[in-house]
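User: Could you write out the 3D structure of this protein bound to protoporphyrin IX containing FE? I've included everything you need below.
Assistant: Certainly. Input first, then the structure.
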Amino acid sequence: MDFVFDKAERFIMQYYNEMKLPEEQKKRRLEQIAQEITEQGSYFLSKEELQYGAKLAWRNSNKCIGRLFWKSLYVNDHRHLDNEEAIFQSLLEHIRYATNGGKIRPTISIYAQNRVHIWNDQLIRYAAYEEDGEIIGDPISLELTKRCQQLGWQGRGGHFDVLPLVIQIDERPPQLFTIPSEDVLEVALHHAEYDWFKELHLKWYAVPIISNMGFEIGGMQFNAAPFNGWYMGTEIGARNLADTDRYNMLPIIAEKMGLNTKKASTLWQDRALLELNQAVLDSYKDQGVSIVDHHTAAQQFHLFEEQENVENRTITGNWTWLIPPLAPATTHVFHQRYDNTKKSPNFVYQPNLYR
Ligand code: HEM
Ligand SMILES: N/C(=N/c1cccc(CO[C@@H]2CCNC2)c1)c1cccs1
């Protein structure tokens, strides 16, 4: 009991202080919460408290370089939804609102804690199929794809098949829902100088919506709270399409560029990386889909640091995640140290539901 009240008190104090709300109101709210916890062992957050707490959780995300815009998070309170169909419809609403024709809006949707379970790691992600040693699609999705097939899902066996949403309530069997293709905005990749690039038939989805992290606030944890921002180009160009255990595109791109891939010292991987990342940024921009390059993102993060200093808040960060995987030392982040203290509210890892 005291553990929950202690956490609740800390959050309410922070919320009322930052919002400069009257002391008297804060005192009454704390008494009300103490009463609820004594009677029911837990308490109910108001919509305003939940909304502000979600913004704080983003502001406290040490691994996130995009925190400058933490105040602009759009928060959907879906704590009342208790059936799979309604939850599916609300997730479609999230996807549509966040996508916004390409002008992506950072959004989070929060569902009833410990009742609603979303098995997907991201609401939109590509499937993977294993055929005689070969993997078609995104290898990171191999296990979830297998689980979906066991649950009756049939994929088309392609490189970019969007997985179904897997929604489970309490201990009931999970239900699978197909996201209508018109709701999945994607960007076909082309390169301004290399005409052959589009023949690779590469594409990626517009909106990354993380759905496997818990939202921890005031002693509570919402295990289903999918949130989205927009991509930083390197996530797609330097990792998702580049990693050897993902789409592994660098050798093919280097070949097409006529580079000598037999010797590491030709830096063929670096040259291919650069062109792939340029193609990602140009293709998203040409199609009017929000994306940020890692230099601009670092500059924005620097503004965030300055803003936090003005507000007399200590900046916390995880250096190993904040530096981009491409040209990290060209950003100020690389040359700075960050305090990795975990503040609350925050987003936290939680047990995987399908492995
Ligand atoms: C608005 C544009 C945003 C950009 C460009 C951005 C960028 C990033 C990047 C590049 C990462 C590292 C991801 C990786 O290396 O796999 C990251 C991590 C993270 N971001 Fe942001 N972010 C944005 C918005 C948000 C929002 C809206 C939230 C939550 C409300 C958020 C919460 C997080 C969290 C919790 C992590 C760490 C994830 C983990 O531990 O696996 N970000 N962000
Ligand atoms: N641009 C983004 N990138 C990510 C943010 C958080 C997590 C991830 C994916 O993390 C996976 C786990 C470790 N790397 C891949 C990507 C955002 C997603 C949702 C809001 S912003």
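The chain has a mean pLDDT of 98.
User: Perfect, thank you.
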